[in-house]
Amino acid sequence: MNNSVNNDQEHNQDDSDSDVEEVEPRLKYVRMRNDLDSILQNDAASCIAVHPKFLCLGSHWGMIHILDHQGNRIRSKTLQAHTVAVNQISIDQNGDFIGSCSDDGKVVIYGLYSKENNHNMSMERLVKSIALDPYYYKNGSGRRFLTGDSKLILYEKTFLSRIKPTVLCEAEGGVRSISWAGQFVAWASDTGVRIYDLYAKCSLGVIQWTRSIDASPEHYRCNLRWSDNRTLLIGWVDTVRICQIRKRSAQEMANRDLSEYAVDPVSAFQVDFYISGIAPLENQLVILGCLKELDETGNSQRPMLHVVEPKYLEYTAICATSLTLRGYKEYSCNDYHLDCLMDENRYFIVSPKDVVVASLYDADDRIEWLLTHGKFELALETVTANGGRDCKKHSLIYVGRVYLDHLLAHRKYDEAGKLCLKVLGRDKNLWEEEVYKFARVHQLRSISSYLPRGDVTLRPEIYEMVLYEYLKTDPDGFLQLVKEWSPKLYNVVAVINGIREHLSTQENGQNVLLEALAILYTHQNRYDESLAIYLKLRHKDVFQLIQKHKLYNSVHDMIEGLMDLDAERAIAFFLEKNRVPSEIVVAKLQKNHRYLHMYLDALDKKDTKDSKGKYHGLLVRLYADFSRDKLLPLLRRSDNYPIEQALEICRQKQFYPEMVYLLGRIGNTSEALALMTQELNDIEGAIEFCQVHDDDELWNNLVNYSLDKPAAITFLLQRIGTYMDPRLILQKIEPRLEIPGLKNALVKMMCDYNLQISVQEGCNKILSNDHFNLHEKLVRSHQKGICTDDDHMCRACHQKIIIREPRNLVMFYCRHSFHEDCLRNINSLENCVICNPQKPVF
């Protein structure tokens, strides 16, 4: 950015205030030079019109200069269009024709490639504005153009190439500016902005000014611009309006006699400066403005280019840049002009002696600004966005290394270490260069976690440098690296020698360094030395060492020691693939019942074929001592323990539920029921116990126990109705005994008893009905003819039974069939002569 063009973001703040953070600009600025310098040395710019192919600059001497976008003349001959300052220039959409107007009363239309439709017209009045039809270059377009003075007049080509003028509107105070897009034209006058539909030849409405017009003419230029064919931007004095043309709905058109289109307001807000130009920028606005206040010397202040985001009745300021244009102290807001190439987001700012081009920051511009202002993280995000394809000058490595140097200079070593992983990638040389930067400030620990250790590795000396720094300053970190890093990264012998030397001179961190030494010994296959260190340290990695290198025979004499070290892990190790026989473990743990309980419990859960139930007798005692909640489930599921011994253990510890189960198992149900009622006071459990064993004596015992306990009688009456005759308990109850809830209990008992009787009667009825239905079905089937089923053959004479014969049929419950005469001959009408089970069915 050229510093002579702009000062950085001011945004109405004092630049000297260091607490105000600079806002990232959206635009960069370049002063247009080349042939333009010589033009403005002798003349002054009065207006500008920009086309994607070129730009036209109108001057105070009535000249129109056609330049490229860098300020070079495209045509050697300058167009002398007017005798006084050019007021406005218009270019058609294709860039073939230029129209201009001036206070000399002339309107000039000039073809760059053809003179066929050129015009040089004298209106004999001041012409302030002009607009060519965007399609002026097309044959059959009518070659239309608009001029504005005291009236808005449309000129179009008619038969015999005559120019026909049509007055569209009388303008109060004159037409001050015109803007044409598609079929719509907007123009400004003293009363406001009118929008006109050229196809329908009607006005769509007037956007009236809501405040009085400033008396000073320099504060009264209306800036009009179409951001598309339907959206109009209006900047007038210090007010911004955005309007949009929409097509009316069918319902609106039916209800009223209205035009096809309507104008709707989108946004309206006021700014604190005078507006010199307005243009769109994506969903934002670019506004060129001048401060209302003069400076301390009474001169005008620098113009500013604002980027704002419009809302409905307000706006959000994005950034504002103060521009140092030549001679700005002598100019007012009407001396500045703004035009743009919307597709390219390029903005041309014109003052009488200067032209500045503003364009969007590209990725490289943004990165440069961010780096300059210390916003390194945003710079990294920008360079990595879109795969880095937007950047031509800056690379991820360049930005990252600048950021790294900044972090190291500010002693942010941990952040710098993380950044290396993101920036340096797989470049071995870059890694080593950056590692030496960390080494110079003794901060290799900050980068150790991020050093490449996969497909790309550094020289062994790099990793040894890091290990040596940890060895001297952080033994715990040293051990962690030894565990994480592959021994292929460094010279193991050199690291072992370094540990030995350090152990001989230092006492701090002895155990940690011994553990690291044990790991390094395993890398050299020196397992005996490694195991000796682990046992000395009583370190849990001894399990991993034994398992990894299959040192199983070495653990038989240190089973209890391994249990002390980590009981759960030791048990899992003993049981895995039966590496240590259970007999050896049980023998070694005989004196330590707690460990023996843990082992046998785990062994029982594993439930291997060799050990299934083998130690249940021992486990009963251990569960009684350490895990009573597991005792009863064991007693119920196992048969591999001495019941009498288990019962004695439970008697000693007064484990009544377990005793009830064992007594019931050996058939001592009376004692079991007595324990449930007298010791456990569990009436519900006693009822369930009686149900399981279904013994009348048990029921009587339960009833006798409950006779002097009113609450128990109530509970019993509520539950016993479906299991025994309620009269047995009612007859035994003391007549004067007060029983709580007796009435409800009796009702419940009778309901249960009646329900039981009803169910039995229903079942009997169903059985009886099924019996006769089946018999009837059988008889009907036989009445159809001879039965071919062997079951319906007379088992006495072995002849087929024909139902229609006069001899009667006899069928028994066993389904054997006979002729009645045959049964009389053998004197056996009561019983089946084959199976002799029951009486005959019929």
Q: pLDDT average, as an integer?
A: 83
- Name the CATH superfamily assignment of the domain at 45-282: YVTN repeat-like/Quinoprotein amine dehydrogenase
| Approximate strand percentage | 15-25%
**Oligomeric state of this protein:** single chain
Report the sheet with the most strands, covering strand number, pairing sense and barrel closure: 5 strands, antiparallel
Distance between the amino and carboxyl termini: 120 Å
**Weakly predicted, low-confidence segments:** 7-20, 784-790, 837-842
For this structure, what is the CATH class of the domain at 45-282? Answer: Mainly Beta
Tell me the total number of β-strands: 31
> And the CATH topology of the domain at 45-282?
Methylamine Dehydrogenase, Chain H
Proportion of helical residues: 25-40%
Order of strands, widest sheet: 1-26-25-24-23
Total of helices: 29
What does the overall shape look like? Answer: elongated
Gyration radius, in Å: 54 Å
The helix/strand class is alpha+beta
Protein name: Vacuolar protein sorting-associated protein 41 homolog
Subcellular location: Endosome membrane; Late endosome membrane; Early endosome membrane; Lysosome membrane
GO biological process, one term: protein targeting to vacuole
Family: Belongs to the VPS41 family.
